Amino acid sequence: MLIINLPECRLQIPNKMALEEKVMEELKNAMRAKDEAALRTLRAIKAAIIIEKTAEGASGEISEATELKMLQKMAKQRRDSLDIFEKQNREDLAAKEREELAILEKFLPKQMSADELQAEIKAIIDQVGAKSPADMGKVMGVASKQLAGKADGKLISETVKQLLAS
Questions:
Q1: 117 has pLDDT over 60
Q2: CATH assignment of 114-165, given 2.40.10.220, 3.40.50.261, 1.10.10.410, 2.60.200.40?
């Protein structure tokens, strides 16, 4: 946070650019470059932001957590579609999903590796004192909160199952 002190006012300027501003900047660059995949994806992100801001009960602003959830949901949709298209040998559609997923991942935090995830979950298992697969709910509750945005929920669940079973 940059704070500017002037005799007549005190101004605070956040160093971190909001998602909407980043998307708009990237959208301008994609238009200049005539990058159809980027344009398609960035417009989808912009539309999701607008929907979120204007949803019933919304204050017109969205939190970073909401932005992250929104982006994760969009990325998950692309991954699911990609799996389906690859199984159906629809390479033309799979290629579009890959392009969009790559652009979405630019806005998401770096995902944990399998080894990092396993180490984090082992620490959480020790923290909550889980001993058997029956304790999976306790572990998942803590793991989902701590690892939000850093790893896919399905991968977290599979890793917890594996570690509690052994």
A1: yes
A2: 1.10.10.410
